[in-house]
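ok so I'm stuck.
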Amino acid sequence: MSKELLWDELKEECGVVGLIQHEDDHTSELLYYGLYALQHRGQESAGIAVNDGEKARWHKEMGLVSEVFGESELEKLTGKIGIGHVRYSTSGESDVENAQPLVVRYRGGTIALAHNGNLVNAKLLRDRLEDSGVVFQTTIDSEVIVNLIARYSNEGIHGAIRRSMELIKGAYALVMMNEECLIGVRDPLGLRPLCIGKTEKGYVLASESSAFDVMGAEMVRDVEPGEMVTITPEGIESEFFQSSAKRAGCIFEYIYFARPDSVIDGINVYHARKNSGRILFRESPVDADMVMAVPDSSVPVALGYAEESGIPYGEGLIKNRYIGRTFIQPTQAIRELAVKLKLSPMAANIEGKRLILIDDSIVRGTTSKRIVETLKQAGAKEVHVRVSSPPVAYSCYFGIDTPDRNQLIGAVKTVEQIRKIIGADSLYYLSPEGLVKGVGRPKNQFCLACFDGDYPMDLPEKAQKQNGHRVFQRLEEEGS
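replied:
not stuck anymore, here's the structure
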């Protein structure tokens, strides 16, 4: 479903977390705290499912983690194994029926699944499964995965997962559980992050390591691309269901999505952002009085820019952290008021000054325009915008909510045209080379498709044409 972005920013689809312990020692509460730490990855719905070895219980609703779960809900979720999910919809409607985890009863017992990512061949697989009589309860591609696993359940849980992974194409970090174990799966390119932590009484899986601190866990390692880990309280078993010569981790994790205190694939997010700020100054110096950030993800970048330039860093915008859910409003005037509600200018800090405004990206340009106007109305003499990523010019198919390409200002306007539209005195985007250098790994380890259109796999249309015959044939041969 294509949806308008109220804040004119890219949205991650979701965050996932899982926990297994020797016994039920506040399992649901620990999952709650883990989801709270991952709230930035999805604010539309939240859910937790647990299993006590005999029965699965779950609760999920629309809203923030703190809105969905209270003491009474958590008390009912008893079990030594559990998984959790926070969601922002990119695939499927924003509705409680699409909230996760998904819990399915089948002949092998019960399986629960939480998914971060997007499948590029979900429609193809869904159509074929529906033709064979499968009834879907949701509109999300995660249910395709669950149905495939249930379909091959006579091969055991691991065999079913392996067979399912052979068919699905796209980006996915999966956290699953049955009555006996916790399972984590990461797509062969490593597009979406997933890591393993250890507690005194068991193990944790999470989208980001930032969840581990609040859950009392220590980082063990990342789940590798193409790897399936099976976790019991006694330890971890690993197997690779598919290997790939290349990696393609989403570079936007380091630009914007991940919390700065996370470490993803061995890369410290805070350091990557600060390095990008230093490189941004080297590429685009400008004479000014103060460096400031659009909070929060751009703060480390601004600090790096300030340190490298010698220009002092200061706060120019205050973020309202208590807005909660804010739904799409019907008029442009109300949308603009909502932007003002989110960010307020510090007039005393910016009046009469030449400002360097650091932001992580510009999507449509409407928010950037409003921020520049707000700063100048508050007395800024000049506003020079510096962006810590290249222009976003292509849509994402792998779990990031991007508008249609003709709505991406970086796809239809030049940098100078964008500068004029947003009202900045100057505008500069970090180069792709500078971005990769800031993260500190070779370019071929990341997906930069939203900047250069070089997708690491077939696009949905191509995937359906080129892979369709093989998938159809495979399902038909298995008696569908």
